[in-house]
Amino acid sequence: MQPDFLSQTSLITYAPKKHERTTFTDISEILLTDNPDEIKWLNTYGLYFKNEFKTVVQNSNLDDFLLKLLSDDEHPNKVILLDNLIFLTIRVLKTDQKNLSSEQILFMISTHSLWSIQEKKGDYFGWIRERIEGNKGVVRKKKSDYLLFLLLESIVDNYLETYQKNAAISSDQLDISRVKPTPEFTSLVEKRKQELFNFKKATLSLRDVVMKLETIEIKGFNNKYFSELKEQINNLLTNIDFELQELESKINLIFSIQGHRLNEVMKTLTILSVIFIPLTFLAGIYGMNFENMPELKFQYGYFLLLGFMFVISLFIVWYFKRKKWF
User: Fold this and answer.
1) Do 43 and 104 lie in a common domain?
2) Could you read off the pLDDT of 242-290 as tens digits, one per residue?
3) Residue 317 belongs to what domain range?
């Protein structure tokens, strides 16, 4: 198991004038002791290396409570303040797939080190590694709190980019001028609503974590970065809520169109019924075949009855038109 852990683990060490990327041949080489002259970012893919995590924690003299936290298989989103260390766990949407899935990411942050453990291989952090390697921006001049801010911001940016891309597709497919009360259109609307609910759930969880980071008080940890990140998340939530309201309006419009069409059908059937009810009544009266019924032997009785029925029909149609019922 240890060779797998080592192949899935890498370390980036940096300072204003230094950058080094390290892979390991033995687990004893992995040390996260604080060095005020440099920042260490250790990254591991996989949550199942329980024994290896224990060894790293013990070798680096990290808070023993981490052993218990890292042994848990499932973590709700939380922020825990330990001895000069912050333990943070979030569930993140994987947006690089057709169907949205999620993964657990754990962060352990001290003043000069950050250890990230990701459930699945692959992430959104490549641009951060490039900035560290190329000494772009101020990342090398900052501590691990700023690195954590960049990692969380990368997740938020990915959410926003994916949301905007899907929103553009959805806006084209669900254009208000194309609203049709068909099962296919309704299915598209409901599918988009489910995507937005998943996005909103993940974004709300992320905001809760960021809000907790805003209140963290630990030596060497600057929480000012997370106020700006919270605003980004709030803006994304506002956009999601607005689109959800639009989709709800489209669903209501579909029901209104269906109701209007049903009313038109019922109105047509009602008009036809009203026209034919008196005609059916007259036909029923003269179809009883009693021997002494008036006009049965009248030479023009049949034609007079047809004419009378025709006049009744015209009168009903004229009356409906006058009332503007059709």
Assistant:
1) yes
2) 888 888 887 887 778 788 888 888 888 888 888 888 888 888 887 777 7
3) 263-322
pLDDT tens string 134-162: 988 888 988 888 999 999 999 888 888 88
The pair of structure tokens assigned to 231 is 């605003």
Q: Are 129 and 13 in contact (CB under 8 A)?
A: no
Among the candidates 201, 223, 256, a domain finishes at 256
Is 193 in the same domain as 304? no
Please check whether residues 62 and 121 belong to one and the same domain. yes
Task: Supply the pTM of this predicted model.
Answer: 0.76
Buried b (16+ CB within 10 A) or exposed e, 215-231: ebebeebebebbeebbe
Q: Clarify whether residues 34 and 50 are in a common domain.
A: yes
Same domain for 162 and 95? yes
Q: How far is CA 276 from CA 117, 128, 137, 322, in A?
A: 78, 79, 83, 19
Long-range pairs for 138-144 at CB < 8 Å and ≥24 separation?
139/14, 140/14, 140/15, 140/16, 140/19, 140/39, 141/16, 142/39, 143/39, 143/111, 143/112, 143/220, 143/221, 143/222, 144/39, 144/41, 144/109, 144/110, 144/111, 144/112, 144/113, 144/114
Residue closest to 144 by CA, chosen among 110, 118, 116:
110
In this structure, are 81 and 208 located in the same domain? Answer: yes
How many other C-beta atoms can be found within 10 angstroms of the C-beta atom of residue 291? 5
> In degrees, to the nearest 5, what angle opens at C-alpha 152 toward C-alphas 145 and 129?
75
Q: Which two tokens stand for residue 266?
A: 């019922």
* pLDDT category of residue 22 using cuts at 50, 70 and 90: confident
Task: Answer whether 21's CB lies under 8 Å from 10's CB.
Answer: yes
Residue type, 9: T
Query: Are residue 139 and residue 247 in the same domain, yes or no?
Result: yes
Instruction: Count CA within 13 A, CB hemisphere, residue 132.
Output: 25
B/e letters for 134-171, b = 16+ CB within 10 Å, e = fewer, are eeeeebbebbbbbbbbbbbbbbbebbbebbeebbeebe
